[in-house]
Amino acid sequence: MRETELDPATSPLAAFGVQLRRSRRAAGLSQVQLGRLTNLSDSQISNLERGTRTPTLDWVRVADKVLETGGTLELMYWSLSGSSLLEGFPEYAAHEARAVELRMFELGVIPGLFQTQAYAEALAAADVRRGAITEEGAAERVAYLIARQQRLGRPSAPLVHAVLDESCLLRLVGGAAVMKGQFDHLAQLADRPKTIVQIAPFAMGERRPFAASVYLLTLPDNSRLGYTESQERGFLTRESETVRMWTRDYDRLQVGASSDVASLERIRAARKDLRS
Questions:
Q1: CA diameter of the chain
Q2: Is the whole model's pTM more than 0.85, yes or no?
Q3: Helix (H, G, I), strand (E, B) or coil at 255
Q4: Residue 265 CA to chain centroid, in angstroms?
Q5: Which of 1, 65, 228, 276 is the most buried (most CB within 10 A)?
Q6: Nearby residues of 156 by Cβ (< 8 Å), 6 or more positions away
Q7: Given this model, what pLDDT does residue 83 score?
Q8: What confidence category does residue 123 fall into, taking pLDDT thresholds of 50, 70 and 90?
């Protein structure tokens, strides 16, 4: 049977189907073989790969183990409903899951990939109080975030270079205890061989090139994607003059930001300044 090729950009379900097919082929399995190993028929596997069937979480976890994906399918599973996620973000996350390098700049809050569970829960709880999401949506959002973070601890983790505006350290989220845990976590991340953390101090002033959060992905084929957000939705930009301009500006940002050593000291100082 001829397998239908999907465009992963059309929907989160299509992106899941494409990743499932890639993982199955990489494992050297047919649809029939994968179905036998995960208790589905070959037609059900075909429907999943064509984006016409939504998987269950239990099945996804079994498939991740069988295909040895390192949890990639579960990560993509959480973006399928998208009800608690910013419009446009699931498409970005699908690319993030296979990126070999990630460069990010964040304002006001610690980047999601670096958040502790307590910090993420405090942000989600605030959205529940505002009526932006339900309690169920908040739980889904945090679970999705944790699934995204798991890749950073694996041997296949991408190189991550993060520049945090100094405001990320000064905004109190969840209280002093949550922030202390968050600062400790940042310090631990900064010690990882594939993670670089820098702080962009307020002293950069108008020389800071970005006025909003910016993420730059390098994919396995060396192509690059850019991502940013407004209050209403996320925007993914493919290889273009915009991505090249953002890359040049990010280089300037890195040069102007504090060194990794000085940044770690700034994080420790921010922790020390917290009142118990």
A1: 65
A2: no
A3: helix
A4: 26
A5: 228
A6: 70
A7: 58
A8: very high
Q: Calculate the CA 273 to chain-centre distance.
A: 29
pLDDT at 136 (0 to 100): 87
185's tokens: 């976590």
Quick one: tokens of 146? 């944790």
Cα separation, 50 vs 221, in Å, equals 24
Element of type H or E holding 253: helix 241-256
Query: CA–CA separation, 153 vs 157, rounded Å?
Result: 6
Rg, C-alpha atoms of the chain: 20
Four-point Cα dihedral 120, 122, 127, 129, nearest 10: 160
Residue with tokens 């798991």: 150
Task: Assess contact for 200 and 164: CB atoms under 8 A.
Answer: yes
- CB neighbour class for 272 (10 Å; exposed up to 12, middle 13-18, buried from 19): exposed
Q: Taking CA 196 as the corner, what is the angle to CA 192 and CA 202, rounded to the nearest 5 degrees?
A: 140
Please, are residues 4 and 50 in contact by the beta-carbon 8 Å criterion?
yes
The two structure tokens encoding residue 103: 């460069």
Per the listing, tokens 């339900």 go with 134
Q: What φ, ψ does residue 201 adopt, rounded to 5°? A: -70, 155
Query: What sign does the dihedral 62-66-69-73 (CA atoms) show?
Result: negative
Q: Please choose, from the candidates 118, 116, 136, 138, the residue with its C-alpha nearest in 3D space to the C-alpha of residue 127.
A: 138
Amino acid symbol at 172: L
Distances in Å between the Cα of 243 and the Cα atoms of 31, 50, 170, 221 are 38, 31, 30, 16
Cα separation of 155 and 194, whole Å?
10
Q: Report yes or no: 100 and 158 within 8 Å, Cβ to Cβ.
A: yes
